[in-house]
Amino acid sequence: MTGKICIIGAGPSGCFLAQALLKSAPGLEVDVIDALPVPFGLVRYGVAADHQGTKAIARQFARIFERQGARFLGNICVGRDITLTQLQAAYDVVVLAAGLSGDRRLGISGDTLSGVYGAGSLTRALNEHPDAPPLPVLGPRPLIIGNGNVALDILRLLAKTQAELEGSDLGPGPSQWLAQNRIDHLTIVGRAAPERAKFDTVMLKELAKLSDVTIQMNDIAPSATDADGEKLLQSLTGLDGKSDGPRQLIFRFGLTPLALTGDTHVRAAHFSNAAQQQVDIPCSSVITAIGFEAQNDWLPRDALIQSAADLSSGRLGPRLYAAGWFRRGPRGTIPEHRTDAQILARTILADLDPDAGRAGRRALGQIKQVTDFDGWLRIDAAETQSPPTGRCRSKISSRLRMVQIAQQEGTRQ
Ligand SMILES: Cc1cc2nc3c(=O)[nH]c(=O)nc-3n(C[C@H](O)[C@H](O)[C@H](O)COP(=O)(O)OP(=O)(O)OC[C@H]3O[C@@H](n4cnc5c(N)ncnc54)[C@H](O)[C@@H]3O)c2cc1C
């Protein structure tokens, strides 16, 4: 089977889709475009620096470009460098796998005060994303709002000692930022009851290994729940009272955010508990980890999703599809995108009606400074050849520098 397919987004969903398409139909031309000069999306710029086992999926994704024949075209922002309409004219099929990069806001009074930061923006800065804002001053009492794994990632990284970050790819800037923070109380608050928190119990177990913290669980009461809820409650109560160091990690549950207050900078967060009483928590900063939404000025995600022909199958319109977080919203782990991709690949291949007259990647010919997969291998080699002591990589954060290295012909190191 032949045909020209363009996938927008080289994150997990785009990579798994390219893999599934080429496995079923090796004769396809599959181009994976990304706004960044480097592939792998949130594997590189979201997954925590101390979770190198999770980041290792990048090695599997590399084979899609090295052996299966997919083409990576980086540093092309769709909507800015080329329009979606132009891509639809050039390819038989276009798939939007562009993720969701905006932090969902709390939507309460005070959520625009200074000192309030989104988890996505903070994790991008920790992962040295080229467009991330500088790492902020969190002060002695940061408050994390959210009870999912991204919230736990931030809690764990903020609580780790320098020795506990050994083997990560945390850069010198973020490492220094973590070493210099003066956090004494780190509170994490969720709206749901503890047994319905979205924490992964494996990630909770990691907290038990932290050497510098004392853990306090609040708002936990015995309750009738299912097996998963029971397991979660056991994990949480098992951590309660752990006392190995001065930094306090305080868990609160069942608190609905009402308002954030402060003069210009946030100083306190106010919640309502199950008994409708107000609970006030003083804080020096707030990190919201309550999900993600479209914040991509270049692609009209909301309009495309609203007018989708059949979103559950991934069909947005004729020859246009959606995958990953772009389709399903900010839910789902990396492995879940593999199953979704296999189903979407079958749908695309069943619908495919190739037109040999379409230009395919020739339509991208006018775009300057495009990076390719060999270019990524040069960047990867430059980052890993002599990392600092205790680190597995020294990430290049400048887009310009990445493009320069990617384009150094014939010098893969
Ligand atoms: C902080 C954080 C930590 C996480 N940790 C884990 C974890 O440990 N384990 C786990 O299983 N899951 C984790 N997840 C979830 C996981 O990262 C997502 O399920 C997955 O990355 C979603 O894949 P995606 O391909 O849909 O989106 P993304 O990974 O976001 O990829 C989208 C790609 O599209 C590109 N793009 C966007 N707009 C454009 C445009 N206009 N033109 C061209 N390209 C564009 C982006 O640059 C990006 O590379 C984490 C998520 C976050 C936010």
Q: What does this entry show, briefly?
A:
The chain has 413 residues and is an alpha/beta fold. It is 33% helix and 18% strand. Helix 10 (227-239) links the parallel strand 9 and strand 10 (247-252).
What portion of residues belong to β-strands?
A: 15-25%
Helix content: 25-40%
Task: Give the CATH topology of the largest domain.
Answer: FAD/NAD(P)-binding domain
Low-confidence spans: none
- Inertia-based shape: globular
Please give the order of strands in the largest beta sheet. Answer: 3-2-1-4-17-16
Q: Please tally the β strands and state the result.
A: 17
Distance between the ends: 36 Å
CATH architectural arrangement of the largest domain = 3-Layer(bba) Sandwich
Overall tally of domains: 2
Question: Can you walk through the features of this model?
Answer:
The protein is an alpha/beta fold. It folds into two domains: 4-101 and 294-370, Rossmann fold (3-Layer(aba) Sandwich); 105-291, FAD/NAD(P)-binding domain (3-Layer(bba) Sandwich). It has helices at 12-24, 42-45, 52-55, 57-66, 84-90, 119-126, 149-159, 172-180, 201-207, 227-239, 301-306, 324-328, 334-351, 373-384, 399-406, and strands at residues 4-8, 29-34, 71-74, 93-96, 102-103, 116-118, 142-145, 185-189, 213-217, 247-252, 256-262, 266-272, 278-282, 285-288, 292-293, 315-317, 320-322. The strands form four sheets. A six-stranded mixed β-sheet has the order 3-2-1-4-17-16, with helices on both faces. It has a six-stranded parallel β-sheet with strand order 6-14-7-8-10-9. The relative contact order is 0.19. The structure holds flavin-adenine dinucleotide (FAD). Flavin-adenine dinucleotide (FAD) binds at residues 8-14, 33-36, 41-42, 46-47, 51, 54, 77-79, 97-99, 120, 123, 150, 153, 296, 298-299, 324-326, 332-334, 337. Flavin-adenine dinucleotide binds at residues 8-14, 33-36, 41-42, 46-47, 51, 54, 77-79, 97-99, 120, 123, 150, 153, 296, 298-299, 324-326, 332-334, 337.
